[in-house]
Amino acid sequence: MNSSFKIKDGSGKSFNLTTNGKLLNEAGEIAGAWTTGTNNQILIQGNPDTSGNIPSPVQIPVFWRFNEKNQFCLLDRNQAVMLNFNTFDQDLFPNYEVRDARLRIRPEGKGGDFEFFIGGDWSLNDQHLLTFTANGIASTLDGILADNNSRFTYRFFDKDLAEISNRLTFAGRWDKEVVDGELHLRFFYKSAGSTEKVFELPGKMVVERGTNQFRYVYNKENSTFGITLLGFLKVSENFEITYVIDNQQSNEGGQLVEKTTFVLQAVFHGNQFDGDLTLALTKNNNEPGNYLLSLTGEYTGIMGQTQVMVGFKFSQVRNGQKVTTKVGIGGSILWKNGQVFYQLSVNQNQIELMLGLHIKLSDGASADARLNLQTVNGQVKSISFLFNVTF
């Protein structure tokens, strides 16, 4: 069923339009079509007359906005509501998407044949409310920013009919900025004319426990939401974090998320080798900040080029396969006051973490010089066990 609505031009002439993009005459017959123009006005094009002449299109200035119930409305030149697309027909529920940052409306649902576009500006506030401003009229969508496949997807619901939901997915790329040790996430999205605009995200980035994927998280109405940035995590011996965000495409093959690489400098955080590997991002002066990222895994022993090293082993799932990575922690084993420590540098200061029962020594030297440890009195011992690894 095609629902219709009436609209008047500046002279008061009335036009009968349908939600599937048709112009009807007084007899209810199709007499033309309508769409929207570059300034978001309604454009009405009548059918050619019997001589084949095409009448000049009629342009009617209008306004558009979402109301407080997340329902999209057509407003007249006085900003009075003429049509609520969510409520005009109980059998039809509109679908909303974005293409090149323009709002695409299908009045008769996702499977409808007719669609039109409204251009405007987008912004995201500290409460994760999405604002759309078209022709100076701002409207706010109250929804959630959430996705498990790296996409900047905003999901919202009709507040009268919660089962009616839509999602707006913006195509673009992720970017980060570290300011005085604080990690800030941004999303640059593509708009018309191949230009880029940016969403500044007020939440926090974490490493998701168990998966070791970067995840953007925030709290809203006593619940936690976020976006998992699917990618590959690497950590160097000096705790430089590299995270490569995977490319993501739409079902039609269009690129929704560009492949992007984050590089972060961090230092070891904590006073023991136990549990997760927690790293603190460094400030501009290279001192440790308060922004912490924790990797899920376990400490292990690693044979380095010149010595045995304390390492950390963690896993990720890549293309359906579990991939395990081992990283050596830059430092050295030392004997001090009858105890064995691991000494590493944090912000040009040397810290010493006791190895305790995590290490076992045997008397005498090993044929592999990397396993040998010289005590204070000159006695040589060999490392036979370190973090569940026997040498």
Question: Would you kindly provide a written description of the structure presented here, covering whatever features stand out?
Answer:
The protein is mainly beta and 391 residues long. Among the domains are: 4-141, no CATH class; 298-391, no CATH class. It has no helices and 41 strands. A 6-stranded antiparallel β-sheet has the order 1-2-3-4-5-6, with no helix packed on it. The protein has a 5-stranded antiparallel β-sheet with strand order 25-26-29-30-31, with no helix packed on it. Strand 8 and strand 9 (81-84) form a beta hairpin. The N and C termini lie far apart (76 Å). The mean pLDDT is 93.
Properties at a glance:
391 residues, mainly beta, rod-shaped, 5-stranded antiparallel sheet, 41 strands, single chain, 6-stranded antiparallel sheet
In short:
The protein is mainly beta and 391 residues long. It contains no helices and 41 strands.
